[in-house]
UniProtKB/TrEMBL annotation:
It is a multi-pass membrane protein. The chain crosses the membrane at residues 43-60, 72-89, 109-130, 233-251. It comes from Streptomyces tauricus. This is Cobalt ECF transporter T component CbiQ. PANTHER family: SLL0384 PROTEIN (PTHR34857). NCBIfam families: ECF_T_CbiQ. CDD domains: EcfT (cd16914). Keywords: Cell membrane, Membrane, Transmembrane, Transmembrane helix. It comes from the Bacteria. The gene is cbiQ. InterPro entries: ABC/ECF_trnsptr_transmembrane, ECF_CbiQ, ECF_transporter_component.
Length: 253
């Protein structure tokens, strides 16, 4: 994990949020999501305050609102599921604009939309202020099982390699006059997928043999030791602590 690896969600910057150690941000986002999920769905005002807290984080990180909103589109399938809930759920019904909707379904849809959107927004802010390499180092620092960290590291490193291999195979097919049209082209695409799998498997074997020949024994060496001061932990946990206060008020008011 010594080399950097940029990703599309990351937004380069020098804000205080960017400068926090990755494991503090991971822990803070995880705690924030737990607090949001624990909030009663009836406390609608609390979710507005959570959104305001995330907006403050985005402002401190100098991440534009458009950047975050564009990447929230990933939750569209969950939005579609939530929209269907008032129509299919059982229980007490209420008429809204001439439609008979379930009260439990409406609350369930609101619960999914509010908590899901806040969780995705927090994850987007984490990804936009933390490089992938730093995220892996943060997971390692938080004592995630080393094998899982290594698997994630190799997935990130060789995802682009496989994507580039797919691009070259596509160019090779098109240079021979192939166009994917209809069911008849599925056979060629299936053969290409099989060839890609074999090439990826062989590449993985070669990489593993190269690592073993260089002394790999099942664990990767720690090149960068990431540490965090008490002040950095306090700064990172300002978000979940403020959210916890809102959550407690939501349960008591």
């Amino acid at each position: 994990m010594g080399a950097g690896h940029a990703h599309r969600l990351y937004r380069h910057g020098h804000s205080p949020v960017h400068g926090l150690p990755p494991h503090t941000k991971l822990a803070a986002v995880f705690a924030f999501v737990l607090v949001v999920v624990s909030t009663p769905r009836e406390a609608m005002w609390a979710f507005g305050l959570y959104a305001l807290l995330l907006a403050c984080v985005a402002y401190a990180a100098r991440v534009p609102a458009g950047f975050v909103l564009k990447r929230l589109l990933i939750e569209v399938p969950f939005v579609a599921f939530a929209v269907l809930m008032p129509f299919v759920a059982q229980g007490e019904r209420v008429d809204v604009l001439g439609l008979s909707l379930s009260v439990n379904g409406l609350w369930g849809a609101w619960n999914v939309l509010a908590k899901g959107t806040l969780g995705v927004a927090a994850s987007v802010l984490l990804a936009s202020t933390t490089e992938l390499r730093e995220l892996l180092l943060g997971l390692q620092r938080l004592r995630l099982p080393p094998l899982l960290v290594q698997i994630a590291s190799f997935m990130i490193r060789y995802g682009d390699v496989i994507a580039d291999e797919m691009r070259r195979m596509k160019i090779a097919r098109e240079s021979r006059g192939f166009e994917a049209r209809g069911v008849r082209s599925w056979g060629v695409l299936a053969k290409s997928a099989g060839a890609l799998f074999i090439r990826s498997y062989e590449r993985g074997e070669r990489v593993h043999l190269a690592m073993v020949s260089r002394g790999y024994t099942g664990s990767m060496p720690v090149i960068d030791e990431v540490t965090a001061s008490r002040a950095q932990w306090s700064y990172a946990f300002a978000l979940p602590c403020a959210a916890l206060v809102v959550c407690l008020l939501g349960w008591t008011l």
